[in-house]
Amino acid sequence: MQKFERIYEAALDINGGVNPLEALLPTPDSEKELKKLSDSFCLSNMTRRIFQAGLNRKIIDNKWPAFEEVFRCFDIDAVRMMSDEDLQHLMDDKRIVRHWGKIQSVRHNAQTIYELNEEQGGFVNYVAEWPSDNIVEFWEVLKKRFKQLGGASGPYFLRRIKKDTFFLTQDVIRALSHWGAIDEEPRNKRQKRQVQECMNLWQEEAQRPYCQISMILARSVD
């Protein structure tokens, strides 16, 4: 496994130097900033990611005002109290994407946020306080407790709300293999923990957030 300094140098060469590369890098929010988020903001971003999965993002972006309207501005109590009939009516609303599983997920996820508020002293606190040096375990929490947040959707939701996380895109996986961190695509929990360990070593070396490390990795191979 290569030192991160070498990976960064390769990314500099490919992307034209420090300024062009650094301009691409995301910046996560601090724990304090994350704790200021609202539940409705989280549900909204969760839902947006869920409906974008498998579609062109612009389709959902263009329809988003209608999503905000039909899901009652993503107010947690209002959404979790929607009836089966309310949800069924949305299958006839051409202003939104009519996917029954995803429509149902919004109510379920609102209820889950409500439950986590009771169990964990606040959903946003739970997210904010989860250590990024074990973020792959939080992906599993999202997959287990919420609907439609498996695969890449959990990490993408976290990135949308600026929680520090890395991605396992095909570019990142290719870079991990190229730099000797893995020898097969990480699919199961054990393999993802192995990637987490590599990311932790690079984070300690580079003193950068995980989101930047994964972006640099993705930009370090042609």
Radius of gyration, whole Å: 19 Å
Helix share, percent: 55-70%
Number of helices: 14
How would you characterize the largest beta sheet?
Answer: none
CATH topology name of the largest domain, in short, is Endonuclease III, domain 1
Which CATH top level class of the largest domain fits? Mainly Alpha
Element-by-element helix/strand order: HHHHHHHHHHHHHH
What is the beta-strand fraction?
under 5%
- The second-level CATH architecture of the largest domain is Orthogonal Bundle
Number of domains: 2
Question: What can you see in these coordinates?
Answer:
The protein is mostly helical. It has 2 domains: 4-28 and 166-218, no CATH class; 32-160, Hypothetical protein, domain 2 (Endonuclease III, domain 1, Orthogonal Bundle), CATH 1.10.340. It has 14 helices and no strands. The protein has helices at residues 4-15, 18-24, 31-34, 39-52, 57-70, 76-80, 84-90, 100-120, 123-129, 135-145, 153-160, 170-178, 189-206, 210-218. Helix 4 (39-52) packs antiparallel against helix 8 and helix 8 packs across helix 9 (123-129). The protein is elongated and about 55 Å long. The two termini are 18 Å apart.
